[in-house]
Amino acid sequence: MTEIALVTGANKGLGHEIARQLAERGMRVYLGARDESRGREAAAAITAGDVRFLPLDVTDRESVAAAVRLVDAESGRLDVLVNNAGIAGEVGTEVLDITAEQLRATYEVNVLGVVTVTSAFVPLLRKSANGRIVNMSSRLGSLTALSEPDSRHRKRGALAYSSSKAALNVLTLLYAEALRADGIQVNAATPGRVPTDINAATPWRGDRTAADGAITPIHLATLPPGTMTGAFRGPGIDESPGW
Fold first, then answer.
1. pTM passes above 0.70
2. Is 28 helix (H, G, I), strand (E, B) or coil?
3. Contacts of 150 (CB under 8 A, 6+ apart)
4. Fewer CB within 10 Å, N or C, the chain?
5. For 167-177, how does the pLDDT look when each residue is reduced to its tens digit (9 = 90+)?
6. Taking a C-beta distance cutoff of 8 angstroms, is the pair 133, 180 a contact?
7. Which domains occur in the chain, in start order?
């Protein structure tokens, strides 16, 4: 039976690569994107498998509800949800200069958007024999990493982004517990330092490719039933919780 996957924010970068790799593995992939022309172009660029553009703005409840209706009508269930959509919200801004407005805008996508999408799609995930949710997090949201002496993550000072990913990590743990009885595995992934629109112009852009960054989320998105839930995985934290 063909598995059904949804990747949010998938018209470019890491999200697009995750969508491509899931399609190559035989899944029907809904490529979520706000912009219709970019979304359709991104879906068409993936030539392997069944990839379908899905209009989806994670900050808009009506958009999310319409996306649920479309996936339900076409596929009847959802096996994999990758909450990839995210923004930085503060590139080049010092910690003490971050405003509440910048924090609110970042949380709107990185935290509240995840809540809106996850809550809306849980009924379809419950129809799966092996539901999986992958939340795209970051070491910048790890309290363990931030508390290390001379932590490069702390020195980056990304107040809005880091705190939003820390909140996402908490969501991951609580969703994992709440959905455990349903057999839905909920985990968080960090891709490592992959140059994307979020960090391409910063000293922290890194040198990993999108394909490198997709390794962990693809692993978590393809877990067999009953394998792992409530975990944070990625470069440098596979041997410990890393929260």
1. yes
2. strand
3. none
4. N
5. 999 999 999 99
6. no
7. 4-233 (3.40.50.720)
